[in-house]
Specification:
Helix content is 61%, strand content 0%. It has six helices and no strands. It has helices at 3-11, 23-38, 42-45, 47-56, 66-72, 86-109. α1 crosses α6 (86-109). The protein is mainly α.
Length: 115
């Protein structure tokens, strides 16, 4: 399991903000929530775009500030020697959301648990 999938699973809580006892329960919950909250959009925009929109709408408690996203992606945002360009910074932020989206698509499409 990659870091992005782990981040998603660890961010999933029940309605009372309690973590789930197992990954299987957390994945079942996220699948159910996604399809109930945003599933109608999949036919129009496709699964990947819908997942990205859902995540960027802060459906889950994941890092969302650009600096935090870039750090998770491995960028040194406190770089004072000028080696991290603005383009590199925003590329890291973009990669973060892309990889997080791909991890969510993987969970949604997994047959490990029925939605």
């Amino acid at each position: 399991m990659d870091n992005y999938t782990r981040l998603l699973i660890d961010s999933i809580t029940d309605e009372n903000e309690n973590p789930f006892n197992s990954d299987t329960d957390a994945i079942a919950h996220i699948k159910h929530r996604f399809w109930n909250e945003y599933g109608f959009e999949v036919k129009r925009s496709g699964l990947r775009m819908t997942c990205e929109d859902w995540l960027r709408g802060l459906a889950l408690d994941v890092p969302f500030y650009n600096e935090d996203c870039a750090r998770f992606e491995g960028a040194d945002v406190c770089d004072n020697d000028g080696t991290l360009t603005e383009d590199d910074f925003y590329d890291a932020v973009s990669r973060y959301w892309s990889k997080l989206t791909q991890a969510l698509v993987g969970l949604i499409e997994s047959e490990e648990v029925a939605a």
